[in-house]
Write a structure and sequence with these properties.
This protein is an all-alpha fold. It is about 75% helix and about 0% strand. Helix 4 crosses helix 6 (about 125-145), helix 6 (about 125-145) runs antiparallel to helix 10 and helix 7 packs across helix 10 (about 205-235).
Length: about 240
């Protein structure tokens, strides 16, 4: 018998939303168990997926108009989805880190074969960003499965907000985003954000995640602005 017997429906909902959902949870799938048992294969998958996404981001987006169209899904989604597959939050963070480092490596390799004049020194800054952000994204990906509704909602809405920032910046006519906006990339970014909301279990959790997105636009957008001095310094700026 559930320990919630006799409690008011509101208190039961509040407890599940902000404390813990004590309802039985399904056993993890065979793929997740297999990758957790063979971690080397999990990390190899992260390397290959991340490296491939980095190459695609470089070759396709840069060649579209000899300048990078603004799109984040190829950089964010590998870490989040692999973290979602992980059985434990620590391993989710680690595999997310590996995936984003691999994306950075793939992007660097691709940059050597494109005509766009990329400053290779900037990748020193991108490596630091990949370590910090990749770990965070992998951790969030795992937390999309959390038993707490509010945790699931925040874990899904944070990367979803990052995916939508280029579209929001284009809509508000920010110069760089307006000049290099690609509607095809925007469609994939929106689709990726919807996928994250779909992975967030529960109608209420998804609704809360959607409400969190506009709230998170400013702080997450500001975090992207903060990366500019780091990249400028790593690229040789004084």
């Amino acid at each position: 018998m559930s320990e919630n017997t006799g409690l008011s429906p509101f208190f039961v909902w509040f407890r599940r939303a902000f404390w813990v959902d004590d309802r039985p949870r399904p056993e993890p799938g065979k793929v997740r168990v297999f990758l957790d048992r063979y971690l080397w294969l999990f990390f190899l998958l992260a390397l290959l997926l991340g490296f491939g996404c980095g190459l695609v981001a470089e070759f396709y987006i840069f060649q579209w108009d000899s300048h990078p169209a603004v799109s984040f899904w190829l950089f964010l989604m590998p870490s989040v989805l692999l973290g979602w597959v992980a059985l434990r939050p620590g391993r989710g963070a680690l595999v997310g880190l590996v995936a984003l480092l691999a994306v950075t490596l793939g992007h660097f390799v691709g940059a050597q074969f494109t005509e766009y004049d990329q400053n290779n020194l900037e990748y020193r800054g991108w490596v630091f960003i990949a370590v910090v952000v990749g770990s965070f994204l992998g951790f969030l990906g795992h937390k999309i499965r959390s038993s707490r509704m509010i945790t699931r909602a925040l874990a899904a809405s944070t990367p979803a907000t990052l995916l939508c920032i280029p579209i929001y910046a284009w809509y508000t006519n920010v110069a760089y985003f307006a000049d290099y906006f690609d509607p095809r990339m925007a469609a994939v970014d929106v689709g990726s954000a919807l996928l994250l909301l779909l992975l967030c279990r529960g109608v209420v959790a998804r609704a809360v995640a959607i409400l969190c997105i506009p709230v998170l636009f400013y702080p997450l957008g500001l975090s992207l602005v903060i990366t500019s001095p780091l990249l400028w310094y790593s690229g040789g700026g004084i």
